[in-house]
């Protein structure tokens, strides 16, 4: 074995240890870069902890067919590195490392075997181990070295008035420093939204900006999953502000209700006709003495017995009755549970204007006094 072959095999057994010239050796240079990834509307960002770990890559030096010296780089699985990663880690500018770092000899030989499959003159994995192969050109064709690159892992801490978010990160320090790799955005578990923009909700907690919704009634900032959409107005609000439409049964916002011109009940605007009548008043049906609903009403309010030609409709909450007596017309709305009046109005047969009697007059009309 000549001196060249001996030196090459020595390097394969006890490889050179190198490190990128431009990679950060301490955490401090990374801090400002990591902080710049996040926008915090209120509160502060802190480095909750960071560890720099030396991880090995392999550089192989070899002469190509044109007689030029090439440098190739491989990961720990023996796979070639992407050219962009080579550039981002600064692997074109290496220096011998001053730190005593060792790699397990057995793992090193296994690594060499994997890398050899990607190199000229290597026909199987065993050619890169032990005494190599008998072919002298293959023995001296490539020289490996270990490149120790810093790998950073830790977390940032976003702190608000009443909350703290953990923002973990991990990646090659060289990529993080260049900004080619960023920490993952914060993910709001309740909504699945991710963002680098963090905002404070009205309850003091921090979250992703795109996870926030504003209640159209209270104007509070909350998680958008806490809001529901009104099926009529399509506005969103907290559930506590919704009311049930007595016609459709849908939960709607008060702003989506309209007053019926006939019964004066507030119902969903989608249940009101162009003329202003709710769905119940548009579909009133004749009701006679045999109708148990009318019988119940007349039993509770005997004064209504002087009225006739009843028409009746009901919603989930009320009975709506319309009757007539000679020259007068009556509309009365009663609670279905206890038959207390919700609305009562009368008009002349020859007028379209309804008037609401005083409370005393209503009592007398219902009682028949």
Describe the structure.
The chain has helices at residues 3-13, 28-36, 83-88, 105-116, 136-139, 173-178, 279-282, 292-300, 359-367; strands at residues 16-20, 39-40, 44-63, 69-74, 94-96, 142-159, 164-172, 186-187, 194-195, 197-200, 206-208, 212-214, 221-223, 228-229, 236-237, 243-244, 251-252, 257-259, 266-268, 285-286, 308-314, 318-325, 328-335, 341-348. With 369 residues, it is an alpha+beta fold. The strands form eight sheets. Strands 1, 3, 4, 5, 6 and 7 form a six-stranded mixed beta sheet that branches. Strands 20-21-22-23-24 form a five-stranded antiparallel beta sheet, covered by helices on one side. It has nine helices and 24 strands. Helices cover 19% and strands 34% of the residues.
Strand content: 25-35%
Q: In one word, what is the shape?
A: rod-shaped
What is the structural class? alpha+beta
Largest sheet: 6 strands, mixed
Low-confidence stretches: 122-140
Radius of gyration: 41 Å
Helix content: 10-25%
Task: Please tally the β strands and state the result.
Answer: 24
Per DSSP, the total helix count is 9
Give the total of domains.
4
Span of the ends, CA to CA: 129 Å
Overall average residue pLDDT: 88
């Amino acid at each position: 074995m000549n001196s060249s072959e001996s030196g090459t095999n020595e390097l394969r057994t006890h490889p050179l240890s190198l490190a990128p010239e431009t990679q950060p050796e301490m955490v401090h240079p990374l801090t400002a870069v990591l902080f710049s990834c996040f926008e915090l509307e209120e509160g502060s960002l802190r480095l909750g902890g960071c560890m720099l770990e030396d991880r090995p890559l392999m550089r192989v030096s070899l002469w190509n067919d044109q007689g030029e010296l090439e440098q190739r780089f491989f990961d720990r699985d023996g796979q070639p590195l992407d050219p962009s990663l080579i550039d981002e880690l600064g692997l074109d500018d290496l220096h011998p490392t001053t730190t005593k770092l060792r790699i397990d000899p057995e793992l090193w030989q296994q690594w060499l075997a994997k890398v050899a499959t990607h190199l000229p003159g290597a026909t199987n994995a065993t050619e890169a181990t032990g005494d190599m192969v008998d072919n002298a050109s293959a023995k001296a064709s490539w020289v490996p070295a270990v490149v120790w690159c810093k790998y950073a892992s830790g977390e940032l801490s976003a702190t608000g008035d009443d909350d703290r978010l953990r923002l973990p990160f991990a990646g090659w320090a060289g990529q993080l420093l260049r900004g080619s790799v960023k920490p993952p955005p914060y993910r709001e578990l309740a909504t699945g939204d991710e963002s680098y923009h963090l905002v404070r909700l009205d309850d003091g907690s921090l979250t992703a900006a795109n996870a926030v919704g504003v209640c159209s009634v209270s104007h509070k900032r909350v998680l958008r999953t806490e809001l529901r959409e009104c099926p009529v107005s399509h506005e969103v609000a907290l559930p506590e502000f919704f009311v049930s439409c007595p016609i459709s049964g849908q939960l709607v916002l008060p702003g989506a209700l309209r007053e019926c011109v006939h019964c004066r009940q507030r119902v969903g605007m989608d249940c009101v006709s162009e003329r202003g009548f709710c769905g119940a008043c548009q579909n009133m049906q004749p009701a006679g003495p045999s109708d148990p609903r009318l019988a119940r009403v007349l039993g509770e309010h005997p004064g209504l017995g002087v009225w006739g030609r009843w028409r009746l409709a009901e919603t989930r909450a009320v009975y709506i009755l319309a009757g007539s007596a000679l020259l007068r017309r009556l509309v009365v709305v009663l609670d279905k549970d206890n038959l207390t009046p919700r609305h009562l109005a009368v008009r002349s047969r020859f007028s379209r204007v309804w008037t609401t009697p005083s409370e005393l007059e209503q009592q007398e009309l219902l009682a028949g006094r």
